[in-house]
Specification:
The protein is an alpha/beta fold. The protein is built from 13 helices and 6 strands. The protein has one domain. The protein is globular. The two termini are about 40 Å apart. The model has no long low-confidence stretch (mean pLDDT about 95).
């Protein structure tokens, strides 16, 4: 059974739409197409907080990324309602002590996100939803026909700890960070690659989620310092399953080492990872 699901969610897309039009982590044709719809001052406010509300794999995770981007993007409630709840929390003096220093930032961003939500839903979302929903079926079929998730679990000897892995598809992130985890079972992906490349990209991230479980007692995913080792291990396993895939040049030295050790008989996910850490190349 395929464990990878796809969503085209309005609220997930709204969060990344606003990041894109404000050039926060993304600067592409999508943002250019919609940017003039927004007051310049509002976009400048979002841009001024860019480092706090964006991520970059292996390099940076903004201190308010979880609160102001990932959590509303999970779409457990309408984004407008989520941001309004943050403002109400501030007004009621219910902010945790460790977050008090950020209340002005949270209010500034939340007010802007509330302000433009209805227009996005009424005037933009239908067009973008059609683009996304027309893109998903071909990629989904690749996972359905290939039995990828079962083969990946068998190869790693690890079962996905959640019922499924959700690829939350958005239309606004070309040229910026993707494969962004917004919960323990959702990652954000764009729709600007060829379907086969997206299949490989999502497959890589499914393996990452298996590695989070397999390496839960190791330093992996607890620090950015081991990012190349874990990404390289995921790509090594993906190539075992699919053959050649997308280039990961920054991780290639680890991919080569994993292949060498695998061919020498080391088939334990944990041992492969430990050997990479010890090599410190």
């Amino acid at each position: 059974m395929n464990k990878i699901k796809f969503t085209a969610n309005k609220d997930t897309n709204y969060v990344f739409h606003m990041l894109s039009v404000a050039k926060c982590g993304y600067n592409n044709e999508y943002g250019e197409r919609y940017r003039d719809l927004y007051p310049k001052g509002d976009l400048e406010v979002l841009k001024s907080y860019e480092s706090m509300i964006t991520v970059c794999g292996g390099e940076h995770c903004g201190e308010l990324y979880g609160l102001l981007a990932a959590q509303p993007a999970c779409a457990y409630m309408p984004a407008k309602e989520y941001y309004a709840g943050l403002i109400q929390m501030i007004d009621n003096n219910e902010v945790p002590e460790e977050s008090i220093k950020y209340i002005d930032t949270v209010r500034d961003i939340s007010e802007i996100m509330i302000k433009h939500y209805d227009h996005y839903c009424d005037e933009i979302w239908k067009t973008e939803e059609q683009r996304i929903t027309s893109y998903i079926p071909e990629v989904l079929e690749m996972f359905e026909k290939s039995d990828f998730t079962q083969k990946a679990e068998d190869l790693l000897g690890t079962i996905l700890p959640t019922e499924s892995f959700t690829a939350a598809m958005v239309s606004s992130v070309k040229g910026g960070a993707e494969a962004i985890d917004i919960s323990n079972e959702q990652d954000v992906f764009g729709i600007d690659r060829a379907s086969k490349d997206t299949f490989c990209f999502i497959g890589h991230e499914f393996i990452i989620y298996l590695l989070i479980e397999a390496l839960k007692d190791e330093p992996a995913f607890k620090t950015l310092s081991t990012w190349n080792q874990t990404e390289g291990l995921a790509e090594f396993f993906l190539r075992q399953l699919l053959g050649e895939t997308l280039p990961w040049s920054e991780c290639q030295k680890y991919i080569d080492l994993y292949e060498k050790w695998w061919n020498e008989g080391c088939r334990s996910t944990v041992e492969l990872y430990r050997k990479a850490i010890e090599s410190a190349v």
